[in-house]
Amino acid sequence: MRIGIDIDNVIANTFEDLAARFNQYVGKDLNANEVVDFMRREKFRMWGYWFVTWRDGLLTRVSLIEGAKHTITSWYDDHEILLVTSRLPILNRQTKKWLNQHEIPYHKLHHSKEREKYKKAPNCDVFIEDNLEECEILADYCDRVYLMDHPWNRRPLKKDNIIRVTSWTELKEILT
Question: Both 162 and 117 in a single domain?
Fold first, then answer.
C-alpha cells in the first residue's frame, strides 16, 4: 500500500507547540480557526513568519504526536511511506533533522504547495491529513483519506472516502 502523510498537525504538534510564538509574531491572540484564516488571508506576512521560523530553527523543536512514530514504523517495511508537507522548501533541512531526531521512517519526502499535495503523492491508496480542504482534493486521487480531527477542520465531510480519525491508535487499528 502507498501511504501519503502530512507532517504538521498529523505527525508533529506544530500548531500546539508554536501557537504562542505565532500569536506573538502577529500581535494577536488567535484561536485555531482564526490562525488558519489568518494564514490564508495574510500570505505576505506569512512569508515573514516562515522566515523567522526557519531562522530560529523552530520546526526542529516541535513535539511528536503520540502514536505517530510507532504506527509509521510498523507500516514502513510493508508499505511505501510518502511524507508530503506544505512547508516551504527552505525548511527542508529542518524538516529532515526533525524527522531524524524523532526516528520517523519514510521512503520519500516532498514539499508541496497547499492544495497540490496530490501531485507529489500520485496513486496513494491512503492519505493522512489535517486540512479538510486538502482532504477534499486528495479524495479525488486516493482511495481513502483520513482526516486527523482538530478544531479547525470540524465541518461536515463532503466525500464518502474521507474518514475522520482522532488518533494514531485509531488509524493503526483501521489500517492494520
Answer: yes
**DSSP letters for the chain:** -EEEE--BTTTB-HHHHHHHHHHHHHTS---HHHHHHHHHH-HHHHHHHHHHHHHTTGGGSPPBPTTHHHHHHHHHTTSEEEEEE-S-GGGHHHHHHHHHHTT---SEEEE--TT-HHHHSTT-SEEEES-HHHHHHHTTTSSEEEEE--GGG-SPP-STTEEEES-HHHHHHHH-
Q: What is the pTM of this model?
A: 0.94
Q: Which residues pair with 164 in a beta bridge?
A: 147
Based on the fold, state whether residues 80 and 155 are members of the same structural domain.
yes
Same domain, 23 and 108: no
> What pLDDT digit, counting tens, does each position of 33-51 carry?
898 889 889 989 998 998 9
Domain of 71?
2-12+62-175
Q: What is the CATH number of the domain that holds 105?
A: 3.40.50.1000
